[in-house]
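Backbones bend. To wit:
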Amino acid sequence: MTQLVLDAAGAHLDADVEVPDGAVGVVLFAHGSGSSRHSPRNRAVASFLNERRLATVLMDLLTEDEDRADGGPRFDIGLLAERLVGAVDRLRAEPATAGLPLGLFGASTGGAAALVAAAARPDAVRAVVSRGGRPDLARAALAEVRAPTLLIVGELDPMVADLNERARSVLGAPSELRIVPGASHLFEEPGTLEEVSLQAADWFTGALPE
């Protein structure tokens, strides 16, 4: 694993990059509010993707000061998306990832940020996966998304499932909503995060390679 400092939307943000041998694509992660690149759930998904020859980039979307501040920009979807766009642009220029087709994996509010970023960079973002996400918060950007999008929601998270279904109805891209049986919002139940990892890996390996 290597570390990068990504300059995005005026902030210097730390990122962990893993590029397996023979990588067929790269996935940039957008975590949810109150989380970071150290999120154990996203790191578990990233490890599974690495086994499927997908490079992964886990980055902090906020600086340390922003993350500590009361009433900070944790829920500022526009700012988070702008920083993701900056990271997308940097990865397209970084030697280790420049030649790899790119996808976005968003969790919780990061799902909305990922979709806004995908709408802003339709030529760069080839696929999106959202885990327990809030795609409804992407609002008008939903209709501008062109990347095939997979929405994954837990069976025990009916409100978020309903919000995902409503968002999917206005998505401008091919999409699927998949419900993981027995899973709550955080996919903490045995086997549920593994199911997310498998579905995400299948989606990315199907959509990213040329």
Observations:
- The chain has six helices and eight strands.
- Residues 77-93 form the longest helix (17 residues).
- The longest strand covers residues 11-18.
- The chain has a mean pLDDT of 91.
